[in-house]
Amino acid sequence: MLLSLRTAVLIASLQVLCTSLPAQAELTGERQIYLLDGQGVEQAIGSLTIAADGDRYGYSIDLDLSQFHDHFLSMKEMKCLQGPELWCYVPYPYANPRSFTTEDLRWLEHDLLFLFKESDTFGARLWNGIYYPLHLDEDGVIRGEARALDLNLLASPPDDPSTPPVGKFDIGDFKLESRWLPDIEIR
User: What's in the keyword line of the UniProt record (predicted)?
Assistant: First the structure.
């Protein structure tokens, strides 16, 4: 009787664990990337295609460039969303394995870097970087809330190219209510 009780507890525990984690099939496929303003108004900026790769997920991002406008800022052409401020996409400049796990989405975060530019400023200021720390919800949606990042951190290649260079101590808080697109959702 004791053995069957242990077996039943083990089976019940496994069932709870399996239902609380998103299934691999739910993560794979194409998803849309949305930036949201403070009122929840969405701006679709492209798609994310996810494929299972062992215990990791490989991905590719396809930005919808029709949503972006060309701006020549600080001697560089940038793709920017126009609104109350410019929200410019900053491609990660170094090698990236383009993969993640359900617990570690840092490489994907590095591929979704932006900077903001207020309308009354001249040029791009790399210390106005935007970094979205991402997490995977129980419903399979990838979400993030904007944080401040000095993009000058990426001026030279990382010492270890197998590890994402931006860490939790590199990102800071700022007044989200004063930023145009404080949230990201990938669904």
Answer: Signal
User: Cα(114)–Cα(46) distance, rounded to whole angstroms?
Assistant: 14
* Whether 144 contacts 133, CB under 8 Å: yes
Residue span of the structural domain in which 166 resides: 26-186
**Residues 56/66, Cβ–Cβ less than 8 Å:** no
38-49: pLDDT as tens digits: 998 999 999 999
Encode pLDDT of 53-109 as tens digits.
999 999 999 999 999 998 877 667 889 999 999 999 999 999 999 999 999 999 999
Q: What is the pLDDT of residues 135-160, one digit of tens each?
A: 999 999 999 999 999 999 999 999 99
**Cα(92)–Cα(46) distance, integer angstroms:** 16
Question: Which residues face 32 on adjacent strands?
Answer: 47
d(CA 152, CA 130): 12
In a domain, 77, yes or no: yes
* CA gap 103, 108 in Å, rounded: 12
2 occurs within a structural domain: no
Global pTM?
0.82
If one counts the domains in the chain, the total is 1
Strands 99-100 and 56-63: antiparallel
